[in-house]
Task: inverse folding
């Protein structure tokens, strides 16, 4: 793929552009900005750099970063250090995918449409749901859109109950969305490391549109979705489940346990951590909610010659026309990263995804066992996936600083969420080797003395 380098404009280029648009001076372009808010003095900026100097400066800055490639990485909390199959970047770097826009014209977008259709099929298989749209921006955005859908679907409901074991960033996004549509978001307390069913039952009422839980939850623990669904059995309340899609390679699907909507982030499949984003989300629902879905759905059809083809089958037209009646203003997604996750899932295959999920379970439980053997207290009471909580005797920030000096990126400070001092959330994905985990345990023993 051809890459275009930076080409500066000459003074004559600038003069020609100004003449073309009828401007005398470059300051004419800023005439709408009031004088009183303009900076009139010369800004104290460093001298300009040549292209070579600028690239060298950028590389020097980049070397100051420490990444998961430099040190063993035991941080999870929603973004994970997973292997990315080499085929992923080879395919998404092709120009027809890398530069593509929304596939409105199916006759020239068959490759992109087919990839999205196959991705939808794989998401439905993982989640156990009937239908999914062709992607969302990220898992937190998908969670909030699902809550909005529930508010629009369940009549006379104005409240969402969300477990405190849901990722705190997801809860923050939910609060942000709720302000615009003016519904209440109420948090459900915890019983150790999972949702407190007694507190959920007490807060559940006729105004509750949906209950939101995470599976596995933020602490890595597996929520009892069946028990939660049973509490909702005699109500109109919907069950929204936020799921790590990799974990669904081993866990019972949320759809089989009664979920009405399943959301999540596809980052574990073929998408780099990228300092937190961008990633890609998914939102899968039952058939009864299909026409309330935001974004769009890609469908399979046949042309007049009987050949298989793909089209954008369903999109909420109110988004574009009668906006005041729209259930969502959502009209786009992260198609490139959706494609990346589809490639990764295809490369692994069904058995490969199950094996990958099992390796995450095995590694996390091995690390937990080694810590317990050294006298550390494991906080989780429920079964967990690839993350778990460990109780320490010092502030987590201080321990992580010492671990970093020892060559490790430590865990997440879960103390504020768990409402207990000095609790660290540790993660061990398939990339962590036995030697790395053993060395990490030894380092933690040393710094936690």
Result:
């Amino acid at each position: 793929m051809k890459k275009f380098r930076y080409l500066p404009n000459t003074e004559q280029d600038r003069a020609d552009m100004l003449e073309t648009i009828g401007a005398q001076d470059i300051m004419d372009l800023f005439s709408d900005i009031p004088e009183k808010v303009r900076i009139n003095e010369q800004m104290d900026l460093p001298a300009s750099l040549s292209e070579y100097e600028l690239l060298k400066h950028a590389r020097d800055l980049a070397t100051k970063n420490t990444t998961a490639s430099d040190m063993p990485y035991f941080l999870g909390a929603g973004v994970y250090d997973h292997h990315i199959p080499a085929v992923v970047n080879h395919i998404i770097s092709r120009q027809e995918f890398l530069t593509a826009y929304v596939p409105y014209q199916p006759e020239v977008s068959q490759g992109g449409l087919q990839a999205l259709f196959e991705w939808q099929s794989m998401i439905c298989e993982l989640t156990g749901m009937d239908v999914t749209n062709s992607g969302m921006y990220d898992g937190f955005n998908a969670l909030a859109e699902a809550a909005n859908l529930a508010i629009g679907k369940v009549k006379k409901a104005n409240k969402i109950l969300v477990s405190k074991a849901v990722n705190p960033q997801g809860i923050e996004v939910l609060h942000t969305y709720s302000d615009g549509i003016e519904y209440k978001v109420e948090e459900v307390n915890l019983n150790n490391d999972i949702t407190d069913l007694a507190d959920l039952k007490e807060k559940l009422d006729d105004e509750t549109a949906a209950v939101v839980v995470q599976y596995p939850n933020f602490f890595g623990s597996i929520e009892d979705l069946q028990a939660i669904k049973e509490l909702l059995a005699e109500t109109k309340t919907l069950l929204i489940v936020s799921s790590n899609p990799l974990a669904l390679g081993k866990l019972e699907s949320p759809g089989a346990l009664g979920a009405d909507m399943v959301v999540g982030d596809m980052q574990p499949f073929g998408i780099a951590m990228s300092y937190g984003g961008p990633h890609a989300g998914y939102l899968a629902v039952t058939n009864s909610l299909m026409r309330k879905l935001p974004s769009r759905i890609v469908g399979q059809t046949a042309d007049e010659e009987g050949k298989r083809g793909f089209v954008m089958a369903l999109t909420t037209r109110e988004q574009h026309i009668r906006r005041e009646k729209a259930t969502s203003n959502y009209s786009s997604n992260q198609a490139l990263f959706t494609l990346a996750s589809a490639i990764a899932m295809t490369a692994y295959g069904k058995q490969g995804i199950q094996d990958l999920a099992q390796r995450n379970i095995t590694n996390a439980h091995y690390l937990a066992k080694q810590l317990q053997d050294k006298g550390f207290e494991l906080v989780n009471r429920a079964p967990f996936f690839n993350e778990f909580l460990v109780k320490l005797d010092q502030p987590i920030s201080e321990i992580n600083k010492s671990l970093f000096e020892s060559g490790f990126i430590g865990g997440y400070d879960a103390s504020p969420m768990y409402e207990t001092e000095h609790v660290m959330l540790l993660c061990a994905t398939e990339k962590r080797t036995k030697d790395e985990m053993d060395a990490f345990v030894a380092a933690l023993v040393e710094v936690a003395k």
